[in-house]
């Protein structure tokens, strides 16, 4: 409820999440609040760390400072990713948001690595930590601030599907753990002279590095080309198949050029006897309407389906019975029979979905199917194209 009040106060037309300007405003607001909260926490913890001579608290303080810098990078990422398309980048600059999240992740890891060294030095050369009640209370106050910031960033990230804000939410939640450990070590210093501060500082630093590593993995996936959102995949297939004379779809490929910036291509199966002008108008309408609804750039390729009857029908059913023997073959499409006389070519595509550690090559798959067919019809030859899922 309180998050919605903040959004309503600072973002105009905040329900229009498809608008790039509104989405940009969400990212900038999240970044600004992240900067303010983290700088405040850095100042508090830095002063406390100096007063009580705690390396663990100092490590946690500089972790907050890196979070403030991360929020600044997030703002810059949203600003730059919202630049319009140009000649060099015809699909826009949306992937800059992923790059900004990646920079944030590496900064988190760098802070952790620096404090691994500092904490190790403190273990080798321990310095007494002086427990004081007011600094201890301030540490707990900072924990509640981080819990609030994590929930706020998660709320904003889910609103606009932002990898950068979701990464900031995860990072803030990790800070709750690290600050809690620091607070426990600070309290323990009141009851023991053991160098707990250095060990807790090491634990905090290792956790920071681990969090940064996880953020790197999460943010690098879309840059490498991860599988698209299953909901978007199903929406495209369902909507394309809903138009007249489109009997099926296959070969859907989706390219991600940043949050909310996707280019997709799909093959639509249409009867070969439909007038070319008629089907062109249908496809043109489908591309335009689906692109508008889903906020993507959609290209539809036409695949004419030959009428299957008589000898073609028998051959089609024969091939279907063969491919059912192979669990990794999902479907068959674009089937046609070419040739005169007894010798004919059966031309078709198959879609495979191999399990992990699948070792059979494409040539072996084609050879297996061809061999099975030859057992029944020695005059038939297979011309097979193998497709794989890109969505």
Automatic annotation (TrEMBL):
GO cellular component, one term: membrane
Membrane topology: Multi-pass membrane protein
Cation efflux protein transmembrane domain location: 32-224
SUPFAM superfamilies according to UniProt: Cation efflux protein cytoplasmic domain-like, Cation efflux protein transmembrane domain-like
Keyword tRNA-binding applies: no
Positions of transmembrane segments: 26-48, 98-116, 128-149, 198-216
Name of the molecule in the record: Cation diffusion facilitator family transporter
Naturally occurring in which organism (per UniProt): Clostridium saccharoperbutylacetonicum N1-4(HMT)
């Amino acid at each position: 409820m309180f998050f919605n009040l903040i959004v309503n106060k600072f973002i105009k037309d905040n329900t229009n999440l498809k608008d790039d300007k509104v989405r940009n405003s969400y990212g900038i607001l999240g970044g600004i609040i992240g900067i303010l909260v983290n700088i405040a926490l850095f100042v508090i913890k830095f002063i406390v760390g100096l007063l009580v001579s705690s390396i663990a608290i100092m490590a946690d303080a500089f972790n907050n400072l890196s979070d403030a810098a991360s929020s600044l990078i997030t703002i810059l990422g949203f600003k730059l990713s919202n630049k319009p398309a140009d000649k060099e980048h015809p699909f826009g600059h949306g992937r800059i948001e992923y790059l900004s999240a990646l920079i944030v992740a590496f900064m988190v890891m760098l802070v952790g690595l620096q404090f691994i060294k500092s904490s190790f030095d403190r273990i080798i050369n321990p310095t007494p930590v002086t427990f004081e009640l007011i600094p201890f209370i301030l540490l707990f106050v900072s924990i509640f601030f981080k819990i609030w910031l994590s929930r706020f960033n998660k709320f904003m990230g889910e609103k606009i599907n932002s990898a950068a804000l979701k990464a900031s939410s995860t990072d803030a939640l990790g800070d709750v753990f690290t600050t809690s450990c620091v607070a426990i070590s600070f309290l323990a210093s009141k009851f023991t002279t053991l160098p707990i501060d250095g060990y807790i500082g090491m634990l905090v630093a290792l956790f920071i590095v681990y969090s940064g590593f996880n953020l790197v993995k999460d943010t690098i996936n879309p840059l490498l080309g991860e599988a698209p959102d299953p909901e978007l995949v199903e929406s495209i297939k369902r909507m394309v198949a809903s138009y007249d004379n489109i009997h099926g779809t296959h070969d859907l490929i989706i390219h991600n050029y940043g949050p909310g910036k996707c280019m997709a291509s799909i093959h639509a199966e249409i009867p070969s006897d439909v007038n070319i002008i008629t089907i062109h108008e249908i496809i043109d309408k489908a591309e335009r309407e689906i692109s508008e609804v889903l906020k993507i750039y959609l290209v539809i390729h036409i695949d004419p389906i030959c009428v299957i009857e008589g000898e073609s029908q028998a051959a089609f059913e024969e091939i279907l019975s063969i491919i059912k023997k192979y669990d990794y073959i999902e479907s068959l499409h674009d089937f046609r029979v070419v040739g005169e006389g007894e010798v004919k070519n059966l031309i078709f595509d198959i879609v495979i979905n191999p399990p992990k550690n699948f070792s059979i090559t494409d040539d072996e798959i084609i050879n297996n199917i061809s061999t099975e067919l030859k057992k029944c019809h020695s005059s038939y030859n297979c011309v097979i194209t193998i497709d794989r899922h890109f969505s």
